[in-house]
Amino acid sequence: MMTRKQKYCLACEQELKGRNDKKFCDPHCKIAYHYRKMQEDNFSFYARVAKQLKINRRLLKS
Ligand SMILES: [Zn+2]
Fold first, then answer.
1. What's the 1 CA to ligand 1 centre distance in angstroms?
2. N or C: which end of the chain has fewer CB within 10 A?
3. Domains of the chain: total
């Protein structure tokens, strides 16, 4: 099985130089990436709740 190496920084998408087992060009990018991911997770959670609330409201009206 071939393992695909990460060639670009996951946060800023710059080409990675040096050791190619890295995922980020520097620690700041790592923090930024995880922070963004966390925000996205929070967003999808709230989006789900909002959707559920709309459904509940519709049920109450009918
Ligand atoms: Zn980067």
1. 28
2. N
3. 1
Q: State the sign of the Cα–Cα–Cα–Cα dihedral 5, 11, 14, 18.
A: negative
Ligand 1 center–CA 8 separation, angstroms = 8
Does the predicted TM-score (pTM) go above 0.70? no
Residue 11, in any domain of the structure:
no
3-state helix, strand, coil in the chain (%, to 5): 55, 5, 40
Query: pLDDT digits over 39-61, tens only?
Result: 999 888 889 999 999 999 998 88
Task: Give the separation between CA 10 and CA 15, rounded to whole angstroms.
Answer: 10
Q: How far is the CA of 18 from the centre of ligand 1 (A)?
A: 13
CA 45 to ligand 1 center in whole angstroms: 27
Q: Within 13 A of 59's CA, how many CA atoms are on the CB side?
A: 6
